[in-house]
Amino acid sequence: LRMELNHVERLGLVGQMAASITHEIRNPMAVVRGFLQLMREKSPASLEHYYRIVMEELDRANGIINDFLSLAQNRVVKMELYRLHEIISELTPLLWADANLRGQSIEVRLDENAPLLMLNHKEIKQLILNLGRNAMEAMGEKGKLTLEMKLQPDGVELYVTDTGPGIPTAQKERLFEPFFTTKSKGTGLGLSLCLSIMERHGGRINVESEEGLGTTFIVFFPFVSERIEA
Ligand code: ADP
Ligand code: MG
């Protein structure tokens, strides 16, 4: 009888547990949300403010559960050939609308000739949204978010740059830890999810930041290798 589980088996177990626990939590939450909606319709307008807060907090908790699930499952995702610039283009209107509401601007510099990459479309969308939202949350009005693709000999780099306050050196090492956050309403799961997404893609994610000047997250996607490893 083997008492020790290997890394993959252990991950599988944690993933299964996470899936069933989150399922059990999500169900009662959905019921609570449904009844809240009904109560809201029958309640005096003076209570509207409270209902809004309760609903928002419920949705926030749901978001945390979803992020946690993706993190804990570390599942094997389906990789397909995509052009990175096409995924970024799909997200640009979303990011632009968000920035617009905050009085910020966006610049996107795509390389449409970059080779195809092996990606999970849904995960890379999530990664770009997480980095984009973090950048916008860090900047004040008049801030500028830049997304830029750079072709390298061995892959494609994506630079997500903001003109925010930057990240203190002491915090830099902790950014990618699950639940590390400096925001009152943050989950601290965004960057740890980005890191696990890039690990699954065989890529990298790094940060360069200068206090007072801004921050750049650099994401590296390796080219599809033709070489077959023995
Ligand atoms: P959350 O956004 O919920 O706080 P994240 O994992 O996305 O969690 O980010 C963790 C922390 O990293 C943030 O709370 C913030 O302190 C820091 N951070 C992330 N992106 C930036 C950025 N672009 N500029 C400054 N700080 C950042
Ligand atoms: Mg975040």
What is this structure's SSE topology?
Blueprint (H helix, E strand, L loop, with lengths): L6 H36 L5 H26 L6 E3 L1 H18 L3 E5 L7 E3 L1 H18 L5 E9 L2 E8 L6 H4 L17 H11 L3 E7 L3 E9 L8
Parallel strand pairs: 2-4
Antiparallel strand pairs: 1-3, 4-5, 5-7, 6-7
The structure holds adenosine-5'-diphosphate (ADP) and magnesium ion.
Quick overview:
With 230 residues, this protein is an alpha+beta fold.
Describe this structure in words.
The protein has helices at 7-42, 48-73, 84-101, 121-138, 169-172, 190-200, and strands at residues 80-82, 105-109, 117-119, 144-152, 155-162, 204-210, 214-222. The protein has 230 residues and is α+β, with helices and mostly antiparallel strands. A 5-stranded mixed sheet has the order 2-4-5-7-6. A two-stranded antiparallel ribbon has the order 1-3. β6 (204-210) and β7 (214-222) form a beta hairpin. α3 (84-101) runs parallel beside α4 (121-138). The radius of gyration is 20 Å and the shape is globular. It starts with 6 loop residues before the first helix and ends in an 8-residue tail after the last strand. The model has no long low-confidence stretch (mean pLDDT 90). The chain binds adenosine-5'-diphosphate and magnesium ion (MG). It comes from Paenibacillus lutimineralis. This is histidine kinase. Residues 20-225 form the Histidine kinase domain.
